[in-house]
Amino acid sequence: MPILDFVRLGNKSSDEFLEVLAAKSQQLSQIYQKNIDGLVKPRQIKVMLGDTTVTDQNTFDPEAVSNFYNSILNKIPHWKSQGITSTADEDLRRVFVKTEIQIKNYTILWHMALQYHALLYYKPDIQVQIIQKELAEIMDNTINKEKELADLTDSMIREKLETMGYKNLDEQKLFEVLFENDQLRDQIATEAGKKTDYDFKAKDQRKKELFKQLDNLLIEAYTTTSVLIDENRLVTGEEGCICTLDLDYIKNKKKESIFDPKRISQQTKQEIIQELDKIIKVLQN
Known about the structure:
The chain is an alpha+beta fold and 285 residues long. It is built from eight helices and ten strands. A hairpin with a 2-residue loop joins strand 5 and strand 6 (92-103).
């Protein structure tokens, strides 16, 4: 007799009942994959690259997959589920649902998921070019003004220190003197600031505003495939979809570490098969 601690329906087995379940699981996966294939068929959209080149990019609508999962759950209200879950790890995204039903002392767990990637682009909008041009001007001007101010400050520091009796200081000694005199540092910074009409604080604020405007012009395109993958490939970040069925034995509201499928009663077997037929029908409609 085969003693099993976990049954993934779809795997080969010498047990006749499990072979029937495996065939139904494979049928379910094929129908599921066909549904996903229709939902993730790519469509072209116009996007703008970082260099403002406008190009075509393929994408699909992840929301349609969520709606598909939700429609399934609505048709099997007697199954328990926490609803649709979405995760995002940088550009790697996943939408999935886990639902289960208990039949006598056995639980069928149904896991469906789609894993995909999100790619960032700009909307094809002239504003992107305008904002990028202004940002470039601010950055270039700031660099130039910072260099001018640094040269001016260095000259002022040496003049100030000379009036205080410090002459011909090397860089290290100059640093030590300034480090030990907070008042002198603040005074020089204030005087240097008065000698430039460039408002660094205002320019920095404007730069933050422009970056925010650019962020608002970002759009995402999504890539995936309807290829069926296993959970190991899901964990490693591969694109694709998952449809798995597991059968667990429950005793005293706890999962038993081992069970013998041949001890499942004929009535329970029939109920399990009927439940699989129901969800196959749900996917077909």
